[in-house]
Structures are given as C-alpha cells and as structure tokens.
Write a structure and sequence with these properties.
With 210 residues, the protein is an all-beta fold. It has one domain. Helix content is 0%, strand content 39%. It is built from no helices and 18 strands. The strands form 5 sheets. Strands 1, 2, 3, 6 and 7 form a 5-stranded antiparallel sheet that branches. Strands 12, 13, 14, 15 and 16 form a 5-stranded antiparallel sheet that branches. The radius of gyration is 19 Å and the shape is globular. 25% of the residues are buried.
C-alpha cells in the first residue's frame, strides 16, 4: 500500500469532493462507510491496529459524483473502532465493549453513548450482528458481572419499534429482546469472539480459548 492512511488521517466533517477517475454511472446511488484508524495523536503513537482513534469515513455516490467526509469518534476508551451497526432505523459505531455510539449516518455527527448493560446483562458484545429478511438484528454478548454465572446471551433488536430504541431503561425496554442464554464452559475464562454465524435455522457459535 503506497499510502499509510492511519498516519495522515485528517478530519473533515464538511463533505469534500473526491477525485473520480473514470465514470460513475448516473443511476448508481449509494452511501457507504469505512473504518480506518488514526494511530497518531499529537506526540503519541499506537502500534496495534485496534488501539488507534476511530475515524468514520462516509462516501455518498450520487449523480456521478463522490463527496466524502470524515469524523473522529471522541472517546479513547470506547471509541467504536470496529464496525457500523444498524438497529431499527438508527446507526451506531461499535467496538467490542458494552458501549455503542449513536451516529448521524449522513453527517457522521456523534450522538448518544449507549450502555448495553442498562438494557441487557452483557459486558462484551460482538461487533458484527446478523440480520434476517425482515431486517431484525441479532447479536451476541458475554455477561461476566455475576460471580460464578458467566454466560453468553443472544439478543434480538426488531427492525421496527413503536418507540425510540434505548430510551426506556430496563430488561423489557422497547426494542431489545434477550432470548437465549448459555453458560460458559469455563466460568473464569469465557471465550473471545469477534463474530458468530447465523443461518435460516441455526445460530453458530464456536467457544474457543482466548
């Protein structure tokens, strides 16, 4: 790779016009997001890919043009540097902790910081939920809060809810449904997982050593 984007990332909240080589069909309209990481912050540098500050990139393809913008997630400890997820009509930046950050998918403005623990017993959560044909989201988390009761939790976020997600606090809050629980084989050393699998009939989880 000729350019190390992790070291020259520049925040640009206002859309900038990207140079297009060739021709983008006028009928092609889309918006995509990308997750580089900024590994330099002043005089401080980071050597691990997951340690840098998350920088969100948004590319809007419309009328043969490609404007793009970038925005930093302002949180060193839970900066959502792994993925974008869609719950209901909302988008969130996520890492693998119990915190996710709501964002504006157009401007990339960072909004509410949501704590899963206020709604579900998960201290850690996968960065890559799955979606069914109706748009419902399924994700998996690990609960390590209760001594001797370490477990995995599979939860569902419906595609459509009558109320705004993550507003009513509690296990029965609108939108979240914790359905399946499974104990960890080792209560002191639960498995590390970045993702899991889902088919039409099964959820696939490999419990492996850290």
């Amino acid at each position: 790779m000729s350019t190390d984007y992790s070291n020259n990332a520049e925040e640009s909240p206002e859309p900038r016009k990207a140079e297009v080589k060739g021709c983008i069909p006028s009928w092609l309209q889309a918006r995509c997001w990308q997750w580089p990481r900024h590994l330099l912050s002043g005089d401080t540098s980071y050597s691990h890919w997951f340690d840098g500050m998350a920088i969100m990139n948004s590319f809007a393809i419309k009328d043969g043009r490609l404007p793009f913008s970038t925005h930093t997630v302002p949180d060193f400890t839970d900066n959502g540097a792994s993925n974008f997820i869609k719950y209901g009509n909302d988008f969130y930046a996520t890492s693998e902790t119990n915190y996710i950050r709501k964002i504006d998918p157009v401007t990339l403005e960072t909004l509410d910081k949501v704590d899963y623990l206020k709604y579900l017993p998960v201290n850690l959560a996968s960065s890559h939920p799955h979606y069914d044909k109706e748009g419902n989201a399924y994700n998996m988390g690990t609960s390590i809060a209760e001594k001797g009761k370490t477990k995995y939790t599979l939860f569902k976020v419906p595609a459509v809810t009558e109320k705004e997600l993550f507003r009513e606090v509690g296990p029965r809050s609108e939108g979240l449904r914790g359905g399946l629980h499974g104990p960890c084989r080792s209560l002191l050393t639960p498995s590390y997982y970045h993702s899991f699998g889902m088919t039409d009939n099964y959820f696939i989880f490999i419990e492996q050593a850290v």
